[in-house]
């Protein structure tokens, strides 16, 4: 299911929410009617939580079917909550807290910013059970903001080069393409949430943008 709606009353839905094929982690204060949209569009269970006491979950954490990575500023009660839900939690060392902005991952691979140390990369690899490849995309290190990736496909910033797209195909093991959401926004990771079942994109996304999202994320293969 592909939805065009501002879940958080602005285009940056991916800053507040992170999702896998099994669950979506949403802020405590997200309205029930908006939470229901996420649940239905992505066909997942909803987890209300925070990360580092913040509702910017999508910016601070990255998850796949194998685990979830969080910054060192994560609160003990947050780690306990995730572990009690059966999630494998990895606390990534270093000074960078906005992991969701600098890492993009699915179940087959991950691309991360060069900013991350070898120790940080090792924790990510062990937690998410994937190989992590450091690389800039479109000459920028905000990888997670530039890419929306699932186990079926990926959408990457319109500013990505052909080499960037080929690299992402190799790392993630799925097909994908460049595009925008929200009437020209190139930060497609920050302005969407998605999994293998569906996606939610910024409300102002145009028809052609929606068609590109549908194709890039592999939803056309379902027909």
Task: List key phrases describing it.
alpha/beta; 223 residues; 9 helices; 15 strands; single chain; three-stranded mixed sheet
Topology:
Elements: E1 2-4, H1 13-16, E2 18-19, E3 23-27, H2 32-42, E4 45-49, H3 57-60, E5 62-64, E6 67-70, H4 76-84, E7 89-91, H5 99-102, E8 103-105, E9 110-112, H6 118-128, E10 132-134, H7 143-146, E11 147-149, E12 154-157, H8 162-172, E13 176-179, E14 192-194, E15 199-201, H9 207-216
Structure explained in plain terms:
- The chain is of the alpha/beta class.
- It has nine helices and 15 strands.
- It has helices at residues 13-16, 32-42, 57-60, 76-84, 99-102, 118-128, 143-146, 162-172, 207-216; strands at 2-4, 18-19, 23-27, 45-49, 62-64, 67-70, 89-91, 103-105, 110-112, 132-134, 147-149, 154-157, 176-179, 192-194, 199-201.
- The strands form five sheets. The chain has a three-stranded mixed sheet.
- A hairpin with a 4-residue loop joins strand 14 and strand 15 (199-201).
- The longest helix is centred in the first third of the chain and has 11 residues, at 32-42.
- It starts with a strand and ends in a 7-residue tail after the last helix.
- The model has no long low-confidence stretch (mean pLDDT 96).
Q: In percent terms, what proportion of residues is strand?
A: 15-25%
Mean pLDDT: 96
Largest sheet: 3 strands, mixed
What characteristic shape results from the CA principal axes?
globular
* Secondary-structure element pattern, one letter each: EHEEHEHEEHEHEEHEHEEHEEEH
Q: Please give the alpha-carbon distance between the first and last residues.
A: 12 Å
Q: Quickly give the structural class.
A: alpha/beta
Query: How many DSSP E strands?
Result: 15
Binned, the helix content reads 25-40%
Q: Main sheet: which strands, in order across?
A: 1-15-14
Give the low-confidence spans. none
Overall radius of gyration: 16 Å
Discrete helix count:
9
């Amino acid at each position: 299911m592909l939805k065009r709606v501002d879940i958080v009353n602005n285009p940056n839905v991916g800053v507040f929410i992170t999702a896998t094929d099994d669950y979506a982690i949403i802020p405590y204060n997200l309205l029930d009617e908006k939470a229901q949209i996420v649940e239905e569009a992505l066909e997942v269970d909803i987890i209300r939580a925070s990360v580092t006491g913040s509702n910017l979950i999508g910016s601070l954490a990255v998850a796949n079917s194998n685990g979830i990575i969080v910054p060192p500023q994560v609160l003990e009660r947050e780690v306990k909550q995730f572990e009690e839900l059966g999630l494998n939690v990895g606390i990534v060392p270093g000074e960078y807290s906005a992991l969701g902005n600098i890492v993009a991952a699915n179940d087959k691979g991950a691309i991360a910013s060069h900013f991350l140390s070898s120790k940080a990369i090792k924790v990510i690899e062990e937690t998410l059970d994937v190989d992590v490849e450091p690389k800039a995309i479109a000459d920028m290190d905000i990888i997670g903001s530039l890419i929306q990736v699932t186990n079926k496909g990926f959408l990457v910033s319109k500013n990505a080069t052909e080499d960037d797209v080929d690299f992402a195909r190799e790392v993630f093991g799925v097909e994908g393409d460049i595009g925008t959401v929200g009437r020209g926004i190139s930060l497609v990771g920050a302005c969407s949430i998605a999994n293998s079942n569906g996606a939610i994109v910024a409300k102002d996304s145009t028809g052609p943008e929606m068609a590109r999202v549908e194709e890039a994320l592999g939803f056309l293969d379902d027909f």
